């Protein structure tokens, strides 16, 4: 059982290595969406490696055991369950790796209207994020908490920050600072919650004024500046989530309201998109990390029980 214990510890250390080597990905002005896709694929690959480490735990626990008793092996049962969770998580992360393109994260158009996101890609992203949260919930990880903050904070109405999502005309130079304030008022967790609570039928551009119920999917799809920036009670997490999705998903481009290099130009708009994406990625990383940690710890606890003669004799 000592060898089994070492294998369990190796799996746990592989998880720690996963945290230190892969998690903590940060987008900057030169990061392409396909780079983010590569990150998700690499994260999925590392989960696959952790799954293999767990299989080694089982193999060593079955050495010298009568084959007729293998079906009763509690370590086999917990490892099979853990591998199922890791493999499922791996598949959803790989799906997220397929929603981008070769454009820069937060790509913005020069003093012109933005470009909406690809329908199939945003639907794939929605499904993957929803399933990641679902897997986490199954491992006793709390669902991301929703935020109630509106785009109007006290006397400061930042609704015009949504104009960088316009798909009918250029935004305004002042829209960038409003968008920054919207982003600063919410967490990545609130953005993720707002996205995963949306439904696929909301993958449509706005045809009327935004409301408090407008989802990140609709903000990501866009609409006219007038519709997007109409409501002071629109949720900040929904606008921020929409900016993140527009910045990350295939074909999407943000609108800008000035020439390159000027205040409100595409460089400033891109930075807003990058901030939104980094917040969202941080929330996804956090929930994946907590899920994997719980899964690995369950295995380690079962191995520790098997190694403890007192526990075995009870």
UniProtKB/TrEMBL annotation:
Keywords in alphabetical order: Cell outer membrane, Lipoprotein, Membrane, Palmitate, Signal
Pfam families linked: Lipoprotein_2
Cellular localization per UniProt: Cell outer membrane
Topological type in the membrane: Lipid-anchor
Superkingdom of the source species: Bacteria
Coiled coil: none
GO CC terms of this entry: cell outer membrane
InterPro entries, alphabetized: Borrelia_lipo (IPR000680)
Function: The Vlp and Vsp proteins are antigenically distinct proteins, only one vlp or vsp gene is transcriptionally active at any one time. Switching between these genes is a mechanism of host immune response evasion.
Protein name: Variable large protein
Organism: Borrelia duttonii CR2A
């Amino acid at each position: 059982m000592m060898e089994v214990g070492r294998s369990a510890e190796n799996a746990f250390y592989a998880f720690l290595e996963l945290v230190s080597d892969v998690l903590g990905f940060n987008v900057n002005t030169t990061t392409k969406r396909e780079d983010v896709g590569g990150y998700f694929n690499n994260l999925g690959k590392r989960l696959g490696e952790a799954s293999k480490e767990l299989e080694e735990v089982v193999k060593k626990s079955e050495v010298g055991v009568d084959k007729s008793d293998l079906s009763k092996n509690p370590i086999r049962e917990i490892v099979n369950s853990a591998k199922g969770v890791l493999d499922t998580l791996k598949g959803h992360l790989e799906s997220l790796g397929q929603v981008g393109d070769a454009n820069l994260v937060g790509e913005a158009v020069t003093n012109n209207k933005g470009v909406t996101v690809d329908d199939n890609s945003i639907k794939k992203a929605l499904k993957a994020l929803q399933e990641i949260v679902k897997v986490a919930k199954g491992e006793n990880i709390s669902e991301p908490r929703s935020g109630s903050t509106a785009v109007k904070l006290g006397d400061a109405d930042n609704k015009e920050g949504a104009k960088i999502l316009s798909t009918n005309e250029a935004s305004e130079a002042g829209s960038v600072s409003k968008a920054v304030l919207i982003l600063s008022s919410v967490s990545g967790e609130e953005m993720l919650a707002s996205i995963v609570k949306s439904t696929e039928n909301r993958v449509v551009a706005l045809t009327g004024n935004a409301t408090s119920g407008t989802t990140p999917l609709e903000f990501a799809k866009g609409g006219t500046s007038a519709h997007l920036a109409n409501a002071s009670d629109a949720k900040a997490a929904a606008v921020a989530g929409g900016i993140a999705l527009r910045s990350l998903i295939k074909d999407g481009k943000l609108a800008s309201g000035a020439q390159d290099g000027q205040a409100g130009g595409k460089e400033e708009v891109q930075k807003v998109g990058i901030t939104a994406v980094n917040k969202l990625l941080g929330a996804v990383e956090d929930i994946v990390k907590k899920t994997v940690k719980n899964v690995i710890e369950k295995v380690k606890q079962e191995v520790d029980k098997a190694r403890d003669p007192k526990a075995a004799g009870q």
